[in-house]
């Protein structure tokens, strides 16, 4: 009888754990580390994973463990791919609009992208650009071109494999 009660208790504990896990968003930290990966990647040249984690917690109340950061830094190809998955649809929209720009050039051309943005002409842009292109420009400005050019250039080798797999030349 004692074993049955313990089994029921263990089962109850296990079921409660599984039910609790259903309310837990495990993608939250994964998504955050993917979004922050280019910046973590850049900062890791001068800071340890522990120092990055501490800075994020102290300055921004962002809880990203040193272990999570280390895992991401140990798999840069995977995390650059995950990051690029998020912006690639917007890159494709931009490419459809500007067929002369090759992806492997345009992604590293800050000056060329500034021309695309039509700085200071919000009204003109609103009326001339298709909404999906305007959205693509905004997303690329925020998520890709906000990354330091030096970091983006280091990412180039990681993105080259991806581009080759999609039929682009190195």
Which key features would you list for this structure?
globular, 170 residues, 2 domains, single chain
What layout of secondary structure does this protein have?
Blueprint: H1 2-22, H2 27-43, H3 49-60, H4 66-74, H5 76-97, H6 103-106, H7 110-117, H8 122-128, H9 131-143, H10 149-165
Question: What would you note in describing this structure?
Answer:
- The protein has 170 residues and is an all-alpha fold.
- Helix content is 76%, strand content 0%.
- It is built from 10 helices and no strands.
- The chain has helices at residues 2-22, 27-43, 49-60, 66-74, 76-97, 103-106, 110-117, 122-128, 131-143, 149-165.
- The longest helix is centred in the middle third of the chain and has 22 residues, at 76-97.
- It is globular, with a radius of gyration of 22 Å.
Give the number of domains. 2
Mean pLDDT: 79
* Structure summary, number of beta strands: 0
Main sheet summary: none
Name the shape in a single word.
Answer: globular
Q: Which class best fits the helix and strand makeup?
A: mainly alpha
Order of helices and strands: HHHHHHHHHH
The end-to-end span amounts to 69 Å
Parts with pLDDT < 50 across at least 5 consecutive residues: none
Strand content: under 5%
Number of DSSP helical runs? 10
What is the gyration radius calculated from CA atoms?
22 Å
Give the % helix.
Answer: over 70%
């Amino acid at each position: 009888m004692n074993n049955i009660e313990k089994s029921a208790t263990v089962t109850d504990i296990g079921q409660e754990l599984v039910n609790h896990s259903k309310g837990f968003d495990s993608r939250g930290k994964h998504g955050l580390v993917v979004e922050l990966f280019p910046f973590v990647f850049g900062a890791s040249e001068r800071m340890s994973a522990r120092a990055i984690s501490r800075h994020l917690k102290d300055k921004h109340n962002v809880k990203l463990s040193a272990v999570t950061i280390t895992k991401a830094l140990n798999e840069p190809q995977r995390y650059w791919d995950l990051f690029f998955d998020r912006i690639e649809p917007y890159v494709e929209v931009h490419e459809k609009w500007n067929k002369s720009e090759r992806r492997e050039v345009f992604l590293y051309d800050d000056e060329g992208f500034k021309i695309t943005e039509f700085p200071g002409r919000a009204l003109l842009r609103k009326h001339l650009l298709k909404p999906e292109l305007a959205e693509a420009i905004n997303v690329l400005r925020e998520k890709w071109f906000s990354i330091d050019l030096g970091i983006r250039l280091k990412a180039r080798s990681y993105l080259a494999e991806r581009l080759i797999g999609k039929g682009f030349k190195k």
